[in-house]
Amino acid sequence: MSQWIDPPERVEQRLLIAFVDLTRFSAQSRRLGDMEIAAVMDAMYRRVGAAIAAAGGRVVKFIGDASLIVFAEDAVDTGVSALLDLKQELDAHFLEIGWECRAAVKIHVGTAVAGPYGLEDRFDLLGNDVNTCATLHSPGVALSVEAFRALSPELRQRFKKHTPPVCYIRVEDPRPFRYTAR
């Protein structure tokens, strides 16, 4: 594996960082047994892993219904394109099996400390930019300003500016739901 994807020691580097998780997963899982949930999540993990590996990225970890994914900084267009395709594939899959879940994708370009952690030296990714990515609001696909600026002009056309806070959402996604306290 390349140094960026599997460094022998922890290294701070700029990467495309992404989270993919499911909308309405909690509601869906309350209606099902644990074995069915486990089977569906296993199938999702396999789909995510295959798609990301085929595009040259790496799944850092799965966290329930979420995936933390990275691509090299010089592969931003490839990574974003793969994530857009993955969202479409996952949405079609969940529709086909009758689950009300859809993929929410959050993408950021920033610096993180990547490398081995813990007793088993398992690869992980930590840092403020990982948290920045995790907190993006995504009605479908959202890019941070940094991710948007790293895109080619052709791929930028698939996104529009959304505020506040500033991020870019895919043109075809609906406006995000806003909770208003009464």
Overview of this structure, please?
The protein is an alpha+beta fold and 182 residues long. 36% of the residues lie in helices and 31% in strands. The chain has a single domain, classed as Nucleotide cyclase, GGDEF domain (Alpha-Beta Plaits, 2-Layer Sandwich), CATH 3.30.70.1230. The protein contains six helices and eight strands. Strands 1, 2, 3, 4, 5, 6, 7 and 8 form an eight-stranded mixed beta sheet that branches. Strand 2 (58-63) and strand 3 (66-72) form a beta hairpin.
What's this model, at a glance?
The protein has helices at 25-30, 34-54, 76-96, 128-134, 145-150, 153-156, and strands spanning 11-22, 58-63, 66-72, 103-117, 122-126, 141-143, 159-162, 167-170.
Q: Which SSEs are present, and which pair or pack?
A:
Layout: E1 11-22, H1 25-30, H2 34-54, E2 58-63, E3 66-72, H3 76-96, E4 103-117, E5 122-126, H4 128-134, E6 141-143, H5 145-150, H6 153-156, E7 159-162, E8 167-170
Parallel strand pairs: 4-6
Antiparallel strand pairs: 1-3, 1-4, 2-3, 4-5, 6-8, 7-8
Helix pairs in contact: 2-3
For the structure shown, list the relevant keywords.
8 strands, single chain, disordered C terminus, alpha+beta, 8-stranded mixed beta sheet, 182 residues, globular, Alpha-Beta Plaits
Number of domains: 1
User: Can you tell me the CATH topology?
Assistant: Alpha-Beta Plaits
Order of helices and strands: EHHEEHEEHEHHEE
Question: Nearest-angstrom radius of gyration?
Answer: 16 Å
Distance between the termini: 53 Å
The structural class is: alpha+beta
Q: What is the CATH class name?
A: Alpha Beta
Q: How many DSSP helices?
A: 6
CATH superfamily, by name, is Nucleotide cyclase, GGDEF domain
CATH architecture: 2-Layer Sandwich
- Mean pLDDT over the residues: 90
Instruction: Give the tally of β-strands.
Output: 8
Strand content: 25-35%
Main sheet summary: 8 strands, mixed
Principal-axis shape: globular
What is the percent of helical residues?
25-40%
* Low-confidence regions: 177-182
What oligomeric arrangement do these chains adopt? single chain
